[in-house]
Structure formats: structure tokens, C-alpha cells
Amino acid sequence: MGRVPCCDKANVKRGPWSPEEDAALRTYVEKHHGTVSNWIAMPQKAGLRRCGKSCRLRWLNYLRPDIKHGCFTEEEDNIICTLYNNIGSRWSVIASNLPGRTDNDVKNYWNTKLKKKLLGTSKNSFTSSAPAPAPAPVAAPRVKTEPAHAPADHLAAPPPLDSGFGFAEELYNYHSYRLLPELPPFAMPPSASTSAGDAFLSELGIGSFGELLGGFGEFAPIYSPSTSHGTSNAQATTTSLTHHELLGGLMNLEY
DNA sequence: AAGTGGCTCAACCGCATGTAG
DNA sequence: CCTACATGCGGTTGAGCCACT
Q1: Is there a contact between A51 and A6 (Cβ–Cβ < 8 Å)?
Q2: How many angstroms separate the CA of A138 from the C1' of C13?
Q3: I want to staple A236 with a disulfide (CB 3.0 to 4.6 A). Which of A7, A204, A241, A247 is the partner?
Q4: Nearest residue: Cα versus C1' of C11
Q5: pLDDT digit string (tens) for A42-79?
Q6: How far apart are CA A84 and CA A52, in angstroms?
Q7: How confident is the model at residue A195, as a pLDDT?
Q8: Residue A116: which CATH number?
Q9: Any idea where the Myb-like domain is (predicted)?
Q10: Domain range enclosing A26
Q11: C-alpha to C-alpha distances, A152 to A138, A144, A148, A158, A172, nearest whole angstrom
């Protein structure tokens, strides 16, 4: 007994999508205000001879109106590398930090360009402001209670401290490599405040602390975004923690 | 101009997870 | 609680394109 197929493979079209199919899919989804309640039933309703999963993928990765196509910026490179160092190949999580990018896009970009860039022989092959490449962590299991940190072998080769690193990169490295003895203590700016936290997030290209902490599973329980989630003033309402306190906690926990 | 080897990226596959009944 | 089904996700494939010889 094999798996139950998600569709009748003999009667569905496969391969590249035609402009007519794209139009039919786009029309259907837009008619339903961008949400499809049942992708399996959707192709028949839209008059498409496609697998529902294929339709969903086509919409999410290509037809969605907010998709950003084209070259990745250096800032996006940095975010991808930083998050990959921390959480491994969890492309959907990484993509969620890059507005307009899909997990497939990020994955393809990593596999075809970034990985080579990082593994390149030139010591300057990576951008000067980016964290140095670390051994790729094994992808964390896709469970909600996953360990937040990369596995221990991740500690084998920490990135060198580079004076060119910004606050954000240093904090991430600090987190990623568990304060190896050779790393000097990370100094919190004396004037650290909500605005410092905002600047930190802005530097990472992350919209809210909730997004940041989403990558650090064990911090999630102490943080609950306020109703102003996504704004620069988001705070941890359940604990009344400020950005400053969260940053402090982020740096002190486990170290 | 033709051959070929590498690269890109859309699409597919199958497993994991979520959820409704 | 169990089962079946839908959805989400990461890994992989292969057609088409391009640069090089």
C-alpha cells in the first residue's frame, strides 16, 4: 500500500504553466480575495487541469501580487546568511524576514549563489559588513518546541570578530557561538533604549521583535507582541519588557 | 556554427504537521 | 483518542539558457 496520491496524476497537467493557466488561477484567487479555502478542490472550480498543490505553489511562488522578483540586495544576503547560521535551512522562516521573497526563492538563491559565495576561496568573497560564514547547521526539526540554537557542532568554527561588523551582526554572532572564550564581552550601548532596539531591528531588516524572537524559540514564552505588532514601538505586553530588557536578556541567557 | 558543460529557477516529490470529524 | 485528509515545507529534478571552446 503506497501513499494516497493528492490528485489523479493521469488527469492533471504537469510542467510549466501557460499564460492562460496563470490567468485562470489569478482570476480565481483574486475573485476569492486572495484566499483559497481548499486548494485540492480549487483546480476543478477554476477550470484548471492541475494538481491543487501545484496551483498553490504557483500562486505563492509566482503569481502573488506582493512577490518581489529580481536580484537580492546585499542587506538581504546578510539577513539570509545570519539566519542560516542560526537556524539552518528553515527557508520559510528566513523568507518571512524578507518581504516579498518566497522560501523557494531564498532556497534557490542560497543553493545557487550564496553558498558558493560563502565557500569561495577568496577571503573577501563575502561582503565586508556580513558575518563570516559558519559551518551550516543541520536544519532544525519542524516542530513548534524546537531547540532554538543550532547544534553543538555549530560551535566548531566561530566567525572571527570583525571590527566592520555592526551591532546587529555582533549580537547575532554572540548568540550563535555562545560566547566562545576568545570573544570579548559584548558591550551593551550605555544609552540602549527602545530606539536602540529599533535601530538594531532596522539594521537586521526585521520589522518587529516578534519576528526576531521567532527565530529564538526559547524566548517566545517571554515575549508577546502588543497590538501594535509591526510598529517600531512594539513591546512585550505580557511582561512589560522593553527592547532594552529583551536585548539584555537575549545577551545574558545561557552565557 | 556547433557542441558541451555549467547555471538558474520553476516545478515536482514526499514527508511532517495541523485539523476536522 | 483515532483516522483521514489538507496544507506546509525542504530537498531534488530537469528544461532552458548562456558562456565558452
Answers
A1: yes
A2: 22
A3: A241
A4: A107
A5: 998 899 999 999 999 999 999 988 888 888 998 899 89
A6: 30
A7: 47
A8: 1.10.10.60
A9: 9-63, 64-114
A10: 9-63
A11: 10, 20, 12, 12, 16
Same domain, A13 and A55: yes
- Residue from A174, A169, A137, A170 nearest A152 by CA: A137
- Looking at the C1' of nucleotide B7, which residue has the nearest alpha carbon? A112
Residue nearest to nucleotide B14 (CA to C1'): A3
- The residues of the protein lying within 7 Å (CB) of strand C read A 4, 6, 36-41, 52-53, 56-57, 89-93, 103-104, 107-108, 111, 139, 142
Identity (one letter) of the amino acid at A213? L
Interval A84-139: pLDDT, tens = 988 889 999 999 999 899 999 999 999 988 887 776 533 333 333 444 444 445 44
**Comparing C-alpha atoms, which of A176, A171, A172 is closest to residue A186?**
A171
Domain count, chain A: 3
Residue A167, in any domain of the structure:
no
C-alpha cell at A250: 537575549
Name the most confidently modeled range: A147-151, A167-171, A220-224, A233-237. A167-171
The phi, psi pair for A225, rounded to 5°, reads -60, 145
Distance A6 CA to C5 C1' (A): 9
